[in-house]
Amino acid sequence: MTGAVETESLRKEYGSLVAVDGLDLTIEEGEIFGLLGPNGAGKTTTLSMLATLVKPTSGTGRVNGYDITKQSDQVRHSIGIVFQDPSSDDVLTGWENLYLHALMFGVPKHERKQRIQYVLGLVDLQDRANDVVKKYSGGMRRRLELARGLLHNPRILFLDEPTLGLDPQTREHIWAYIENLVKSEHVTVVITTHYMDEADRLCNRVAIVDHGKIVALDKPSALKTKVGGEVIRLRARSPNLDAIKQLDYVLSADQSGSTLLLTVKDASAHLQEILGKIGSVESVEVRTPTLNDVFLHYTGREIREESGEGGMFERIARARTGGQ
């Protein structure tokens, strides 16, 4: 397979801040690839460089075979973008938004109507095409922006937090649309998300990014296997964490107040001994690792302060177009 996206030592600095630190990455054609990471980890900056919205400080990147710095026009015509924040014009109709996009991206005149009708059909918005966007629900607006991102027939689609703020039912529908788009349009999708269930459901592979570096990259199932063991979550009045950490079958142990989160080899065989060392236990739960456990394993459990990266993808694009 040919790499749809390839980077080598890709780096972006903002003064003394290193947002992306020597990224080496290959994303295959037809893949749904996830970029996961805490706030400010470098996900959105990476997408912004790949989309030619931000120039890298050093390193190289190719998108659909085009160099992101030397062939930026070709890159832009090869990609579609769905921003984290809504970017469609809410005083225009859905059809008008798509027509304006077709003009901007040079869709041939004889193809515009057909392409607009086709992408509206992909996201089930034919019946609402002539309604102004301010009357759309959040899910409908997101579907419109998926349609807009596909209108000029891109080979690669960048989705920055595509279901942020949507209710669970609408998120499920958006996931189904994304999966259908990959099959019907044969596009490559690069997605950033904070939702681990979203990455687990959609992505063929995920890269966990922290402090601008890839700290883990594989299929979600393989990453969960690499963490190993089983997860025990329990609540106790006065847990003795130090005693638990001394047990050779305990792979990791973290405490937050009265709650302990342990990763344990063969938990069923060792659960009784663990409970005996802890003492008075209020509740206990044993389960297999999830992608969320993988994420926490590689990035830590402390809350990160916002770095201002969220929403940057759209702010850069608006700045490039004069705030329109």
What is the fourth-level CATH superfamily of the largest domain?
Answer: P-loop containing nucleotide triphosphate hydrolases
Rounded to the nearest angstrom, the distance between the terminal CA atoms is: 39 Å
Q: List SSEs in N-to-C order.
A: EEEHEEHEHHHEHEHEEHEHEEHEHH
Overall body shape = elongated
The biggest beta sheet reads: 6 strands, mixed
Strand content: 25-35%
Q: Give the second-level CATH assignment, the architecture of the largest domain.
A: 3-Layer(aba) Sandwich
Instruction: Tell me, rounded to a whole number, the average pLDDT.
Output: 87
List the strand order in the largest sheet.
Answer: 6-7-8-3-9-10
